[in-house]
Structures are given as structure tokens and as C-alpha cells.
Amino acid sequence: MAEWVGIGRRARRCYGFDEIALAPGRVTVNPEEVDISWELSGRRFSVPILAAAMDGVVGVKFAVEMSRLGAVAVLNLDGVQTRYDNPDEVLQEISQATPEVATNLIQKVYTTPIKENLIARRVEEIKKKSGYAAVSCIPQNADKFSSIAQEAGADCFVVQSTVTTARHIATKYTPLDLEKFCKKLKIPVIIGNCVTYDVTLELLETGCAGILVGVGPGAACTTRGVLGIGVPQVTSTIDCAAARDFYYQKTGKYVPIITDGGMSRGGDVCKAFASGADSVMIGSAFARAKEAPGRGFHWGMATSHGNLPRGTRIKVGVTGTLEEILFGPAVVDDGSQNLMGALATSMGSLGAKNIKEMHFVEIIIAPSIQTEGKIFQASQRVGMGK
Fold this sequence. Notes:
Strand order of the largest sheet: 6-7-8-9-10-11-12-13
Number of strands: 16
Number of domains: 1
CATH class: Alpha Beta
Number of helices: 15
Oligomer: single chain
Helix content: 25-40%
CATH superfamily: Aldolase class I
Radius of gyration: 20 Å
């Protein structure tokens, strides 16, 4: 599986979404009859997508609308929503900044301390409008923030960092004990992010309700360029899903794998499910929604790092409503809208009646899949040529 890259060093080949394709089999299914739902800790959702916990993507209104449409949006408790009583003013300032000053402005904005009373307020605002309240923070804040959020009525808690392991070594602070943390909370805990079989297996042993897969693939993320780390999403999803399946065989407990990042079009989402994902987490595609608080701009959670930002603010534009992005009708030609229609149609064409059957469709290595026969699209910058 590995090949030599130098004397005494071998490296294995890994694959991203643009390098593979899905091959139709001998059976097809009516797309209107496929089941695209997924389950998290005994609760079933009709849309297998989570909106990423990024300030340019998820606010209170956005989370409520995602819930209405059958999906989940994760609110970032380390962001502007809990630092400012009126986050809209700050978000507007960020959206109006020039590219030259955007990073410095974001760094400044995130130096304002988090107000713990706003954690409860944001959760309560979502719950008052019958929304599903999923919230997220870094491991260092998880113990304190989770207690506040749970008491306020949060439905799910996400512990998320660039790279998360079950064994974190630190002498200057006490690392979060993930196993104790999961046992303490009465609500589902999702942990991320990871990209390998062994780490996934150890994280599953903590008793978590879900695993986020992906390091550095996000549209606004520069981790791969700044730190040089990451594994392409197809390979990382397959590896982590293999750990999920082994854990299920050993314990009888099925814990969903959530592919996080790197998907901007319906085809990417379909490939993630074929690679073994039970659900996916998306940021940039939702940042383009009219309901998104970023006003057509998107920046990653690590953008605000004071000394080593690992993200950048990007302009994605506003292309349609959240409902159009999820269910259509699509008004753009690049596959970034009607994601659920794309998934159902792909599953029908591949003969997969549900998400679990999607895990077994044939994957082929196809580096020309994005370019074969697309010369006019590429030259005119339309459709797949954008």
C-alpha cells in the first residue's frame, strides 16, 4: 500500500474527493424512495448534514432554520455569539473589512472575553423557537461550558479542536478526560477532529456519541499550509469508518462517523457517504445562505489565533436561501445547491436504498473525473469549470 519516498522512508497514497468517482452497479432505485436520514444517540434526523460551528455560518436564527428543515447547526461557544451581546454588529464589521485588515480585525474581535451568561442565553434563544441546540467549544473550555449549556437546555455538545486524541499530554494545564466528560453529561457528546483508524478507535472507547473526521480540508482553513498536517478526506473517512465498524462488531454499539470539511458540492457529499460517513459537516456551502450571519463571508475557527492563524476570511457570496441549498430549486449550476436532491439521486443511481447501503458502493480512482469532456465548462468558467 505504501511506496518509497526516499531511503528508508515509505509513504502511503491517500485520496481526496476530486481523485475518485462512484461506479453504478446492477441495480437502480427510485430517488424518491431512498432514505437519507441518519441517527444520533437514538434521535433520527431527516437531513444527514450538520452546519459547522463557525461564526460566519451559524447564529441563533440559522440554527433554528436548520432545525426546521430537519438538520443540525452547531453554534460556536468560543466565538462572537458568546463574546458580544449584539454579535450582528461585529459580524457586519468583519464582512465590511478589506482583505488587508480582515485577519487583524478578526484577531482583535476574538480578544474580548467570553461572557458565560451569553452561553445560556444563546441556547435558550434556540430552544424558545423549538430549535435543536447543538453547541461546540475547545477541550480547554468544555468542562465549564458544557455544564452551563446543558442546564440551559442544550441537546448536544461538541468538543472540537484541530486535532483531538484520547491521550493529550500537557504539564501547564490539566487535559480534559474525555471518558469522564462523556459519562458526566446527560446529552450526546460529539468529539473531533481525527483522521486515523487508531485514534478513532480510542476516541470511540470514551463513550462519545459521534466522531468528526477531517484535519485541514475546510475552504477557509489553512492548517495544511501552515502546519503541513492532514489526510485527504476520502482516505481519512474510510479509515475512521473502519474503526467504527470494528468497534461495532466488538461492542454492539454503533457510533456515527461525521466527515467534516472539504465538501462544496453535492458530488463531494455523495462521495463522503460512499467512503463510510453517516453524516457530514459543512461550512462554506452554508456560509452562502441568506440566513448565514457572515453576510457572504466565511472564516475558520482557527483564524483568530493571536500568533499563528490557521485560517483566512474568504468571500463566498450569498447565492440563495438555506432551503434552496438543502432542497432546491437550485438557481446555480455548480452543484452547491439542492444537496439533498443530489444525494438522493446519486443513491438511486448507485442502487443504495439508505445511507448504510451507500457505504458499500464501488469507488474507483479517477483523477480525470472533474476534467474529462469538460473543456467548454472550464474555458467558460461555468458548471464544473468554476
